[in-house]
Amino acid sequence: MSAEQIPEAEVAVKHEQEVAAEAAVIRGYATTLTPELYLKLWPLLRKPIPRWFIKSVGVVKGKPYASTGVSSAQVQVERMDNVLTPLWWRDTATYEKEGTLARVVVEVGNLGELPLVCRGSYGGVDRGSTAGNVYKGSYTNAAKVAFARVGPGHEIYLDAVDLDPDVHEQAAAEQVRSHPAQAGTPRLLTPEECAKVVKATQDAGLDDDELMLLLGSVGVDSTDDLTTAHAFEIRGILDRRQGS
Length: 244
Fold this sequence. Notes:
The protein is of the alpha+beta class and 244 residues long. The chain is 47% helix and 13% strand.
């Protein structure tokens, strides 16, 4: 690290400490994460990641395009811990094809209860010096985008599918398939389609207040703002709710 980078690093660390302090004030002595409390903490999850924690990578072997992303998934883990404490969130990973393909799911909520928010992503690598490095690389690729979909680092991955550092062809395909917004600009739902979404939530037992919380969890304030990507995400949440 150069002498010029030290002040920038200190500013970045101080920024995250300030986020943690602000979150602690909001949480107070709460031992349960309610939807209301989560919505107060959510803006802190979405605060931009300090520039010092962001890296840009040029064209390298296995990835024929330049990309920008979080230097380490640990940066996003720290933001989750700072805002929600380790008790109010968790991530799980499943692997396929000898670890070269991973799916990471991040859940926010109380242990033993249905999550308030659940987001996931595929990621993968094609190479690694050891089996452990392959699994680690696949996890990292998937986790960075999964965390961004919950909040930390979301600004970096807007309108981009970044499977840094190596592209796994099947992972890329699953990424687009699992989150249509990444395949292009999602269109707004028609009034008829919005009505179907609302009916699906009612059939799942949600009342009007719960519908508004559900809309907030996918990033919109009104059914008028729903896109095809939001509808896909809401369907997944309702499916998990009904299957629990």
